[in-house]
Design goal:
The chain is mostly beta strands. It is about 5% helix and about 40% strand. The strands form eight sheets. It has a five-stranded antiparallel β-sheet, with no helix packed on it. The protein has a five-stranded mixed β-sheet with strand order 2-28-29-30-31, with no helix packed on it. The N and C termini lie far apart (about 115 Å).
Length: about 475
């Protein structure tokens, strides 16, 4: 009879000895293990090039609808207007007084549910709409004269209602109009015919992640390039506006994801750059080749980052966000052959924050609607972040605002338009009018050209005459 304790002692020793013998035999025959380099796909993980990517959706083709472009020459060609600052200059003088009924309503059209703002150029009004019945992003072109639809074209994509579907403002340059769809499809259309010239799927091509509440990034046209921030395999990309082919692609920014923010172009210390707020921080890349010039994690938005950075001058950039993010003024500096960015001051949410819209920098002051819960007042601040005045009982929710001809135009959630003086000494209202009947979530950015203001709520778009008669 074998003793159990003896087995527990002897057996491990026997196994160890056998292992030594086997190792010696393996070495004695001179066998070598060949280690091949790790190749994409060899470990069962496909390379990016081998991934099965669904082709971008195919446009249905333009439909001509009989409207005629206006002969009016004014332009609001993209998000925040010609100079990307939400300030309208030139054009006819705006009225300072109106009848009790308010500014004249020139025309209106129905839209699919959303918050996509309009671009105005060449007598046309462009909106990237969503057609729930066809389940398609639909580029629509209207006449600035009467709102008659000139053409439309679309591509199929399923978008589920989530505080609306459409979100962004198209960008127009010469013969091209570029759109950025809720699920990150970027398309270029012919201004004249509505033909789709090219279409990119940033999710399929760059592994972008569709933000919560869908994409809110507006396309940026800079010369013959379209600048986009997929914030996936590449943080930013520049594509040729004629072909949609990449000119350059910046490096991946860690694991940052796309936000609702649009790209800010600016120049500092002789270097033109594009500034973008990703989910993990802010990056500045060279406009020439996409090289990273600087990055910081000192400013990170919360939950849904929407406002675009505001260039103040001398390398200063103002950042803000909602959902308790507050605001921060930062400063670029040059040294050692590179660029750095540092914080100048921070504002707590009760001082200033903005959930959706970008403040306006005008004549040395910042104007913006503070959307901290229960606040929603227009405030005027100096460049040290000190509040000069606020609108008191006048509250604007998450509606848009802009400055034109020395006036600040504000639309509240329910479609009430307020016209006030854009003055740093006090808040002075010139008129308030209900311009969108039965309005709901009037959040889209406004557009102004030739004294005609385009605004909308969730399902209707209107054109008002603000020009003095």
């Amino acid at each position: 009879m074998i003793n159990k304790g003896s087995v527990e002692i002897v057996l491990p020793s026997v196994l160890a000895a056998l292992g030594v013998v086997a190792l010696g035999l393996w070495l004695s025959v001179g066998r070598r293990m060949e280690f091949a380099p790790r190749l994409p796909g060899a470990d069962g993980v496909p390379s990016r090039g081998d991934l099965e990517q669904e082709p971008p959706p195919q446009p249905t083709g333009p439909v001509m609808l009989g409207g005629k472009p206006s002969s009016l020459k004014g332009s609001w060609p993209w998000f925040r207007g010609p100079r990307l600052n939400a300030i309208s200059t030139g054009g006819p003088p705006l009225a300072r007084t109106w009848p009790a009924s308010g500014p004249e309503k020139l025309w209106s059209v129905e839209l699919g549910p959303g918050h996509a703002g309009a671009a105005i150029d060449q007598g046309r009004v462009f909106v990237l709409d969503y057609d729930p019945a066809a389940m398609a992003d639909t580029m629509r072109c209207f006449s600035l004269d009467d709102g008659a639809e000139i053409w439309r074209n679309s591509y199929p994509v399923e978008v589920v209602e989530n505080h609306g579907m459409s979100r962004t403002v198209p960008a127009v340059s010469g013969p091209y109009v570029v759109s950025f769809g809720p699920k990150c499809h970027v398309a270029c259309w012919s201004v004249e015919s509505g033909e789709c010239l090219w279409l990119l799927d940033l999710v399929g091509q760059y592994h972008a992640k569709v933000p919560n509440w869908y994409a809110g990034q507006c396309p940026l046209i800079d010369g013959d390039r379209v600048i986009l921030a997929p914030c996936g395999d590449a943080c930013l990309v520049a594509v040729d506006i004629k072909t949609g082919k990449a000119v350059w692609e910046s490096e991946k920014a860690d694991n940052w994801e796309m936000t609702h923010v649009s790209i800010l172009p600016m120049t500092f210390a002789g270097r033109k750059m594009y500034v973008y707020c990703g989910s993990g921080g802010v990056i500045g890349v060279s406009a020439e080749d996409g090289r990273t010039l600087w990055r910081t994690t000192e400013w990170v938005g919360k939950m849904a980052t929407c406002p675009t950075p505001v260039e103040i001058g001398d390398g200063r950039i103002f950042f803000c966000g909602g959902y308790a993010a507050g605001a921060r003024m930062m400063q670029l500096s040059a040294g050692g052959g590179g660029l750095e960015i540092s914080s100048l001051f921070e504002l707590k949410p009760k001082q200033f924050e903005s959930e959706q819209h970008t403040p306006v920098f005008y004549e040395g002051h910042l104007y913006g609607v503070r959307t901290k819960a229960g606040g929603e007042q227009l405030v005027c601040m100096d460049l040290a972040g000190k509040e000069i005045w606020n609108s008191g009982r006048d509250k604007f929710g998450r509606g848009p605002y802009m400055i034109a001809d020395g006036l600040i135009l504000l639309l509240n959630d329910q479609g009430r338009l307020t016209v006030a003086e854009a003055a740093a000494d006090a808040y002075r209202v010139l008129g308030q009018f209900e311009v969108l009947e039965d309005a709901h979530d009037a959040w889209a950015p406004m557009a102004l050209a030739e004294g005609r203001l385009i605004l909308r709520d969730l399902v209707q778009m209107k054109c008002l005459r603000l020009a003095a008669l």
